[in-house]
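#onboarding

Welcome to the new folks! Below is a worked example of what a typical request in this channel looks like: someone posts a single protein sequence, and someone else replies with the predicted structure as tokens. Don't worry about understanding the tokens yet, we'll cover that in week two.

Example request:
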Amino acid sequence: MPRTQIVHSDPDILGGKPVFVGTRVPLQALLDYIEGGHTLNEFLADFPTVSRDQAIRALEHGTELLVADARPGR
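Example response:
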């Protein structure tokens, strides 16, 4: 599947905070839900303009970046 933009930043939308494409939902909302112990389903129920695919792809991309940046421990 070709990688399309999941999140974007526009100074006219929420002051430039990263939001899911096609929504006004900040990426930070998803991270806050997960950090707070909520499920992905709870997030999606509260933010129906974000698709399951968008949320999962955002989490997967974050994971890829963290793994790619991992350094061997000393």
